[in-house]
User: Which sequence fits this backbone?
């Protein structure tokens, strides 16, 4: 499922027009992005949690040539599935 599929599903299940459904989905995604940008953790009980993980700089290797390269410090968003989601997917 992609973003548009989510918009359509919301519109169908809650009897909304597509514009209103799109506004709701965009609000949710923008709020989540803003929270992660601020370094906050997002926890959706039964689904999972999103957080930002800090990676320290390290010495890596160019996979093509094998030569060492310096990888800069970075922050990346991470999703960790909740227990109920893991159980539902495993069925």
Assistant:
């Amino acid at each position: 499922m992609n973003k548009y599929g989510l918009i359509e599903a919301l519109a169908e299940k809650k009897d909304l027009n597509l514009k209103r459904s799109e506004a709701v989905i965009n609000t949710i995604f923008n709020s989540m992005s803003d929270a992660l940008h601020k370094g906050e953790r997002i926890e959706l009980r039964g689904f999972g949690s999103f957080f930002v993980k800090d990676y320290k700089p390290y010495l890596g290797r160019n996979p093509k040539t094998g030569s060492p390269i310096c990888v800069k410090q970075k922050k990346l968003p991470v999703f960790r599935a909740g227990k109920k989601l893991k159980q539902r997917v495993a069925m």
Observations:
- The chain has three helices and five strands.
- The mean pLDDT is 96.
- The two ends are 19 Å apart (CA to CA).
